[in-house]
Write a structure and sequence with these properties.
This protein is of the alpha/beta class. The chain has a single domain, classed as 3-Layer(aba) Sandwich (UDP-N-acetylmuramoyl-L-alanine:D-glutamate ligase), CATH 3.40.1190.20. It contains 13 helices and 16 strands. The strands form three sheets. It has a nine-stranded mixed sheet, sandwiched between helices. Strands 3-10-9-2-4 form a five-stranded mixed sheet. The longest helix has 22 residues. The protein is globular and about 65 Å long. The two termini are 16 Å apart. Pathway: Purine metabolism; IMP biosynthesis via salvage pathway; IMP from inosine: step 1/1; Purine metabolism; GMP biosynthesis via salvage pathway. Its cofactor is Mg(2+).
Length: 434
């Protein structure tokens, strides 16, 4: 596993050299690997340049997003292919993007629980999905289905207006039996999106997710939920508050979803409110930057060496050099917060806003998986004297997540094609990572 955050080479761990803070005499000759699991709706994004007549022929509304059935999607796709209108076809979906980016950053395995078409033709969108997914993403657990996977058409007319047509296909047909308990129980994290719990139409992907969550809880594997869209959350925020409290360890959201969930427009205050339902919060806030909130044992607190910040909470980043912990693992839990502004003030030109939050979450998952990797392979390290959720501090995770988000914003695809460039060490790296 690569060291989270792309430090200089001397800071990459893995455990092939002795940890001077460890009481162990020797280390494993072959380190135990680490992985994460994700439950996803298999979706392909299809972008095409079209005219208004095509929208009218397929009964699509310019500038709007409409759900269409399989027959309508097949007819639309066939015409776009025949006329050579398609510009891009690439793998998509919140969890699919997150798992791919995790695998690209960490060079470790990410297990994908999802469906895939039983018959795949060369050049088809199902083929494109698999072709554009990192080889480190384990697709051996995919459940075959007889229908198409999900398709999201982005249709751009000459005026620049974007219209959307979405066909869910068979992407919600995942059955509970497709979940492999042994893989979930040995994972560094289990991640899924809110869309899964509102599948409807007799599909069972929500039951598959609940089964995986039950296994994760039994094995003390962190359960990570990304909220996905404010429109879904604002329909029934009380349901999601209760759901998070029952099932979720780590919550990822943007500022709009945070407001829909908590009723609070300030991202920092919304993150604080969310801590009553979960143990760790990652909240991206667009051009404002991103926030983290969580818990740490009072005796393990480390004060920041950065400038103290005040907002909805005074001097909220005072202990941001601390590492996140589960609330129930703390004798005296203290709320800890961190914030970072956009990397380099944000890109000069934003090529893609789709997936920036997924990139930030992939960075957090990498750090969490690295923590499990190090704990298993160097169990007596002083770093694991207390049980933490992550390898790095709140502050360091913010920096890493921020950097990954930037990399997504400056490319057309929500999926990274490479790792991150080297960067300078931070104030705290010498403490945690030597």
């Amino acid at each position: 596993m690569k060291f989270p955050g792309q430090r200089k080479h001397k800071h990459y761990f893995p455990v092939d050299a002795r940890d001077l803070r460890s009481k162990e005499v020797g280390l494993p000759s072959r380190p135990v690997r680490s992985h994460i699991c994700g439950i996803a709706q298999t979706l392909v994004d299809i972008e095409a340049h079209v005219d208004d007549d095509l929208l009218a022929r397929h009964q699509l509304v310019k500038g709007n997003s409409l759900l269409i059935d399989d027959a309508a999607a097949n007819a639309l796709y066939a015409e776009l292919k025949q006329q050579g209108k398609i510009v891009e076809e690439h793998a998509g979906g919140t969890i699919g993007n997150t798992l791919h980016n995790f695998a690209t950053l960490s060079d470790e395995r990410a297990v994908l629980f999802a469906v895939m078409e039983r018959q795949i033709e060369i050049g088809s969108y199902a083929y494109k999905y698999l072709s554009n997914t990192s080889s480190k993403v384990d697709v051996n657990q995919l459940q075959p289905v007889d229908g198409p996977i999900g398709r999201c058409f982005t249709l751009i007319t000459p005026c620049g207006e974007r219209s959307f047509a979405i066909s869910k296909g068979a992407m919600d047909k995942l059955e509970p039996e497709a979940i492999k308990p042994e893989l979930v129980a040995s994972a560094g994290a289990l991640v899924f999106a809110s869309y899964l719990m509102r599948s409807g139409d007799g599909d069972n992907i929500d039951q598959a997710a609940l089964r995986a969550m039950a296994v994760a809880h039994e094995a003390q594997v962190p359960v990570v939920l990304t909220l996905g869209t404010r429109f879904l959350i604002e329909q029934d925020p009380a349901f999601w508050q209760d759901f998070i409290q029952q099932h979720v360890t780590v919550l990822a959201m943007n500022e709009e979803e945070a407001e829909a969930l908590t009723g609070e427009s300030d991202p920092l205050k919304a993150a604080e409110i969310a801590l009553q339902w979960c143990d760790l919060v990652l909240c991206t806030a667009g051009p404002e930057g991103l926030y983290m909130a969580g818990y740490c044992e009072e005796s393990q607190l480390r004060e920041t060496e950065h400038e103290l910040r005040s907002g909805a909470i005074g001097e909220f980043n005072r202990y941001e050099f601390s590492r996140p912990m589960r609330r129930d693992a703390c004798d005296t839990p203290v709320k800890v917060y961190s914030y970072i502004a956009p990397y380099l003030g944000g890109p000069v030109e934003i090529l893609n806003t789709n997936g920036a939050g997924d990139g930030a979450l992939a960075a957090l998952l990498h750090d969490m998986a690295a923590n499990r990797y190090h704990r298993i392979n160097v169990p007596n390290s002083a770093k694991h004297a207390v049980s933490s959720l992550s390898y790095s501090s709140f502050s360091q995770i913010c920096k890493y997540a921020n950097r990954v988000s930037y990399e997504v914003l400056v490319q057309h695809s929500p999926r990274l094609s490479r790792g991150l460039p080297e960067r300078e060490e931070s104030l705290e790296e010498g403490y945690w990572d030597r």
